[in-house]
């Protein structure tokens, strides 16, 4: 294997030559403390930067086994090192010429602790994958500066970011223990008959709509109402108390601007773990929770929305309902049925993003518009059946309609950002002021029929060119000639999840979408392979920006593919 001096010499020889000559540096180099591997070399200074790996043996990195011996701890340590690497490289990354010249960066991370392909820790080594903008002036190579970056800066970065002895041991311990406690709490939920837990003292509001860090000064810490308070003894933190939300139907009510949506949002993201001091680090939710909202304009491919919608104008079938442009109510119905098809156990609905005519139809409207003129059976008539027939719970923010008192097990009122248990009052009011609604939609929820996807309808190639997958921003995946809009899929936490989902669709098509398998089996296959063999199965090259996603978000991407056809 070549060594650091060989690489430096090579880069000096390349100085001033055409940028494309950089491809000669692809390969592995033995440095004193680690191996540097150049996996992919960019074609010009403006292209996606080059991809580099560093592998440092544990004899150098020196991480104690206890920090990565369980899956939860391992993911937490990898997450910690990603953040550390990110903060260290920021001091080295600088403009050194045209375009991306001089950039050093690791994948973007937010407030969640997720499994990612940018850092791996094993008994043998620590591996980090990142990108480097190889420096150039216009179209010519700046070889001396490339030598500084690769041969001088990277060893310093490794020293500062990847050696246990130079890191804050206490902060790392806190990181892994916090994640371990959250993971433990989430696993305890079903044993207590709960679908979500929000600890006392949690800080739920965020800095702003575009900044996901905790609101600092004015935040009111969460306090459970005494009647809903549960206790846990976590493995590390010990006694933790807070509000448990039981299985069934839970209604969150309260005046406008009193913190209802903020509470629901933290429950949505409680399917993921969070970093210490996020404020939501011990907020945990059933991992099969899916946020449901209206999403007019989306496409729908042969979904049986008949539990909610029947007798559309022009006699359109709702047993296999397809459209290229769904309405608010049909999109919300499809979102629910698709979540059930993928195996959800908890639906999360916020009135702010729901279609009113899908949520409620009151006595007066029932009187004015007869049932045979109204295709929609509102959610209020189905929410209990969802629980009794399908075992699926719902947490619903609904400040605008007391009709829901009749169907809720628990009612929580947000009052000045504090929850109150108002179940008893709500039940009394429901008895005193009857809604006189007529029950709609029959006694049963209706059946869920998993769809069989047709492989020829999923084509990630543009014309005859090879597979083209691009991630534009946090909300959109470019897939072949199509754009999949995921802006309304609210439980996607990081851009890297989109990168991985895009590749997972290609993988699913290659391995499991055969014209015979139903969607749930396809999801089982892909998620099972990722579970057992890791995210690297999604690509030939060792990619550094894949982030673990859930089956529900993969299903959501497939379901929003406009070309999708089913048998
Ligand atoms: P609602 O859904 O009841 O109308 P929101 O959840 O949208 O209310 O919250 C309204 C505002 O209050 C938001 O700006 C939010 O960040 C802020 N907020 C929510 N919870 C808290 C809290 N615990 N402490 C301080 N501010 C909060
Ligand atoms: Mg709201």
TrEMBL record:
Pfam families: ABC_ATPase (PF09818), ABC_N (PF20446), MRB1590_C (PF21117). Coiled coil: none annotated. It comes from the Bacteria. Transmembrane segments: none annotated. Residues 169-450 form the ATPase of the ABC class C-terminal domain. PANTHER family: ATPASE. This is ABC-ATPase domain-containing protein. The lineage of its organism: Bacteria, Bacillati, Cyanobacteriota, Cyanophyceae, Coleofasciculales.
């Amino acid at each position: 294997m070549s060594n650091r001096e060989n690489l430096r010499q090579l880069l000096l020889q390349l100085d001033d030559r055409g940028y494309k000559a950089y491809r000669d540096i692809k390969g592995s180099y033995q440095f004193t403390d680690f191996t540097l591997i150049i996996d992919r070399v960019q074609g010009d200074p403006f292209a996606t930067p080059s991809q580099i790996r560093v592998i440092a043996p544990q004899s150098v990195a020196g991480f104690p086994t206890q920090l990565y011996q369980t899956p939860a701890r391992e993911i937490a340590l990898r997450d910690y090192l990603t953040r550390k690497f990110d903060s260290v490289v920021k001091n080295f990354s600088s403009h050194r010429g045209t375009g991306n010249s001089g950039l050093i960066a690791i994948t973007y991370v937010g407030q969640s602790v997720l499994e990612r392909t940018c850092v791996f820790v094993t008994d043998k080594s620590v591996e980090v994958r990142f990108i480097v903008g190889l420096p150039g002036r216009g179209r010519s190579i700046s070889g001396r500066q490339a030598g500084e970056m690769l041969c001088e800066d990277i060893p310093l970065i490794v020293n500062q970011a990847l050696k246990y002895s130079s890191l804050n041991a206490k902060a790392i311990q806190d990181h892994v223990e916090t994640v371990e406690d959250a993971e433990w709490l989430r696993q305890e939920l079903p044993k207590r008959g709960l679908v979500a837990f929000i600890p006392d003292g949690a800080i739920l509001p965020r800095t702003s709509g575009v900044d996901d860090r905790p609101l600092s000064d004015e935040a009111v810490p969460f306090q459970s109402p005494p009647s809903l308070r549960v206790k846990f003894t976590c493995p590390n933190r010990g006694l933790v108390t807070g509000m448990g939300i039981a299985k069934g139907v839970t209604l969150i009510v309260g005046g406008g601007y009193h913190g209802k949506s903020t509470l629901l949002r933290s429950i949505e993201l409680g399917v993921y773990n969070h970093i210490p001091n996020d404020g939501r680090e011990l907020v945990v939710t059933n991992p099969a929770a899916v946020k449901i909202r209206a999403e007019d304009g989306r496409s729908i491919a042969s979904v049986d929305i008949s539990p909610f919608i029947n007798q559309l104008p022009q006699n359109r079938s709702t047993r296999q309902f397809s459209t290229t442009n769904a309405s608010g109510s049909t999109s919300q119905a499809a979102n629910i049925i698709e979540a059930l098809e993928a195996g959800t156990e908890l639906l999360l609905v916020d009135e702010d993003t729901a279609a009113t005519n899908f949520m409620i139809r009151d006595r007066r409207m029932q009187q004015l518009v007869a049932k045979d003129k109204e295709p929609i059976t509102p959610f209020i008539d189905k929410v209990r059946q969802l629980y009794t027939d399908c075992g699926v719970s719902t947490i619903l923010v609904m400040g605008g309609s007391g009709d829901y008192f009749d169907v809720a097990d628990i009612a929580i009122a947000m009052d000045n950002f504090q929850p109150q248990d108002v179940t008893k009052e709500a039940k009394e009011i429901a008895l005193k002021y009857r809604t006189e609604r007529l029950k709609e939609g029959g006694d049963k929820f209706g059946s869920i029929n998993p769809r069989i996807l047709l492989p020829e309808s999923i084509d990630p190639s543009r014309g005859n060119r090879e597979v083209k997958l691009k991630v534009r921003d946090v909300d959109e995946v470019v897939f072949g000639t199509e754009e999949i809009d995921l802006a309304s899929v609210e439980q996607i936490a990081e851009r890297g999840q989109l990168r991985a989902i895009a590749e997972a669709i290609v993988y699913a098509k290659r391995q499991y979408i055969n014209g015979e398998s139903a969607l749930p089996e396809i999801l089982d296959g892909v998620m099972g392979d990722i579970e057992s063999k890791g995210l690297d199965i999604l690509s030939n090259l060792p990619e550094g920006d894949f982030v673990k996603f859930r089956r529900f978000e993969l299903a959501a991407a497939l379901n929003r593919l406009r070309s999708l056809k089913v048998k």
